Amino acid sequence: MMKKIITIVIAFFTVIAVQGAKTPKYVFLFIGDGMGFTQVALAEAALAARDGKIGFEKLNFTQFPYSGMVTTQAANRLTTCSAAAGTALATGNKTSINTISMNADRTQKMETIAEKVKARGYKVGVVTSVSIDHATPAAFYAHEPDRNMYYEIAGWMPTTGFDLYAGAGMLKPKGEKNRYDELLAGGYEIMKGLGTDLKGAKMYWEQAEGKNPANLPLAIDSKEDDLTLTDMTERAINFLMNKRGFFIMIEGGQIDWAAHANDAASIVHEVKDMDNAIAKALEFYHRYPNETLIIVTADHETGGLTLGLNSMGYDTNLSLLFSQKSSRAELVTLLEQCEDWQAARKVLTDYMGFWNSVKVSSRDELELLVAFEKSKKNCANAAVDMLASKAGVGFTTGSHTPAYVPVFAIGVGAERFSGKIDNTDIPRKIDTLMKP
After folding, report:
1. Are residues 272 and 226 in the same domain?
2. Where is Zn(2+) bound in this sequence (predicted)?
3. pLDDT tens digits, residue range 257-280?
């Protein structure tokens, strides 16, 4: 009898060990640039408030079974930047501020998780809502001493040879050589705009001609003919799908931009926008649950975002954020077309809900009018700040903070991404899981 019990126990732990050692074939790493815990909380609380509820409307990724907190410091500063944090998430090593996947002294390049798994035969994709040569995506395929070396960074794409690069565009594609010509010479198909399904052995995909190469339109400003992170994610999955497997990094890059602008409404839309892209990965996971791993994290927190203001006591009115129909930057553009206060007042009604869903006192209107008379930009800033204040949202900075950021995971090996970890642990754990 005892021998039988021992045999059963050994068999049980053998099964557990085998399951724990299972290798995911398909790995998604989503990075919400600038997305701290409070950005996630704001999005969920605002979505609940919009539906008349008190609480938090769960996003797809916040329902993942494993979660934790991540430290983000750089090698030479507590408050990191996207280059140093991107390098940590790509290589598993700390580096100095503004450095792209090189050591802190900028003397040696450091191999990225994407390069490692590509060498093992996996397909690899890099997708972002900002320019493909921006700090976070660059950290996965390039090695340069300065994040601002956009021309040099772009030159790494055909050299590194990943299967897919997709983003808003390139900031500096022309120099001694034309980076588009180099991609073509390297065997890449180039697609611009919505286009059709991705085809060819290797693809480079960006926005249509004439669009801003720095970023896709913010979700709050997006039109029907604009590329979205969700569309890019869905088509990237279809393109990369193969029996050997793939690794894909997908960045929601403009959570950070909205937070730098202290634009609370745009933050909500950007977090939800990335969650929509994550939904496409989840659909894939449900088809291949025993072969897929999805990780969602951030590189750093931006804005020192807070829910609750002294001026409102314990109250919030987050549903007001949905009265805003344009980003701070787009509101500046709209107001610049106004010749007088009456025209500006109409813009503020149409795009901010003022004097409609948002109550505006005579004192508020005077503040907006004075700002308008100084400049259209001042008026836009005053309006966006006023709405955030009425909603009960505040910011301590327009820069980054060293606050912990979240990590969520589901799928094969997801349990390894829980508790308190450092950002360098994430690619190291992925590397271990994806080893043959």
Report:
1. yes
2. 33, 256, 260, 299-300, 400
3. 999 999 999 999 999 999 999 999
**Domain membership flag for residue 2:** no
For residue 114, what are the domain limits? Answer: 25-305+397-433
Instruction: Judge whether 251 is annotated as a binding position.
Output: yes
Cα 293 from Cα 433, distance rounded (Å):
10
Tell me the pairing of strands 26-32 and 292-298: parallel
In the chain, how many H helices and how many E strands?
A: 16, 14
Contact 25, 251 (CB under 8 A): no
Measured CA to CA, the distance from residue 191 to residue 298 in angstroms comes to 28
Contact assessment for residue 421 and residue 407, using Cβ atoms and an 8 Å cutoff: yes
Q: State the sign of the Cα–Cα–Cα–Cα dihedral 10, 16, 20, 23.
A: positive
Helix boundaries (H) for 21-78: 37-50
- Number of structural domains in the chain: 2
Q: Annotated binding residue at 143?
A: no
The verdict on residue 182 lying in a domain is yes
Q: For residue 201, what are its two tokens?
A: 């052995």
Q: Are both 43 and 87 inside the same structural domain? A: yes
Structural domain contains residue 295:
yes
Catalytic entry in 82, 129, 131, 319: 82
Is 260 marked as binding a ligand? yes
Question: Residue 221 carries which DSSP code?
Answer: G
How far apart, in Å, are the Cα atoms of 321 and each of 266, 357, 368? 9, 10, 18
State how far the Cα of 409 lies from the Cα of 416, in Å rounded to an integer. Answer: 9
- For 52-102, the pLDDT digits (tens) are 999 999 999 999 999 999 999 999 999 999 999 999 999 999 999 999 999
Is 64 part of any domain? yes
Any binding-site annotation on 400?
yes
User: Domain containing 119 — which CATH number?
Assistant: 3.40.720.10
82 is a catalytic site residue:
yes
The CATH number of whichever domain residue 380 belongs to comes to 1.10.60.40
